[in-house]
Amino acid sequence: MKEITELFSGLGTHIDPEVAIPVAVAVVGFVAIYFLLRKKELPPEIVAEEQQEQPEAPSDEPEKADQAPDTPPAEVVESAPESPAPQFAAPEPIAVEEKEIVAPPPDPVPAPLPTEVPEEPVPVEEVELEAEESESEEDTAAAEQEVVAEEEEEPEQDFFSKLSLGLSKTRRGILQNLEHVFSSGRVDDAAWDEFEEILIMSDMGVSTTAKLREKVSSAVSAGDSRDMEKIKTLLEKEILDILRGVESPVAEFSAKPAVFMVAGVNGVGKTTSIGKIANRFTQDGKKVMVAAADTFRAAAVEQLGVWAERVGSDFLRGQTGADPSAVAYDAVKASVSRDIDLLIIDTAGRVHTKTGLMDELKKLRRVVARELEGAPHETLLVVDATTGQNAVEQARVFGEAIGITGIVLTKLDGTAKGGIIVAIAEQLGLPVKYIGVGEGLGDLREFDAEQFTKALFTSDKEALH
Fold it and tell me: Which of 80, 110, 167, 323 is the most exposed place for a label (fewest CB within 10 A)?
């Protein structure tokens, strides 16, 4: 202290040593703290450099030994002359280890990705399965068409059995009731009156029934009047004679194309009959076109298109509400250009009591006749057998309007009024071209008078055998 006092006094200053010494100590302390703070800042930079090198092989101790020479010795000595320096730097590697622990989680992240990959093609497989199912459905439809084609080629005996069974209600209504009348042994005018009533109930008509009574009663002698088999045989013969008068084959294909014009009221099975007729000629190797001139009913056009696709024939349609005669005109032109063998024109369902509608049908026929000489070669009227005597009136009116050349009698199966065909034949003399006894493609056949009459008088047991 004495030396310091002398020093200050030599400098000519008047500083109290007791005050100066504490001040100097404080300054030195601040300087020391300053250097200590700098020492704390330097180790993190060194640790950062080590962190960049350690991730390459953090767990390999030999590599750490190799990295030691890379660090400049001078920097190490200057930055950490005292032992506290490494103590402050030691916690830093913990952060590095924590980063290494956090880093592994990305590894399990890609793991679920492979499990998601097979889920993407699942819809594709479902589409392929749906495509296979649709193809199987198409194959099934094709198989059904083949079955239908096989039904078309069924033996005549099978069709006769079907026809006989279809006429079973009509047959029972006639034969069973006649047997009940004549088996009692009472043969008089009252019995013959009942005979007439039975035939009228089967829709043979009043005038036709009166003629049948006269011929059968005059042929039955007094001794044979109780013989039911004799009466049945005579009645069968008379009906056969009437039906033979209207037996007529479908027009031959002398012209190309041959044109069939089909008419009828709504609900008689006109569209279905057209499809079946087209199928018969398609099976015979003919090239067929179906034209939908029923432009006022969209459902009828669609239904006819389905039939055409089903039987494999060409199809021509007009716009909804278009002039039916214009559709017929286009159909004739198209059939000529496509070298068609048979053109079938479906006309709109016409109520025979409506004069305006019948006039439109006449116009259509005139257009067809004008565009193709000799056409239409067949003008067919489709009649529902279940309509009874109204069918006779339909045939008469349509015949007067467009010159019907043939009758297509549908729905004979399951009706007790199959005798309508006898009434049409006897009263109008119109040829019967086709008869229908079912919904299958092969259930529409050309009319055979002998076959029909035999089926009408054959018992159920005989029909099955």
Answer: 110
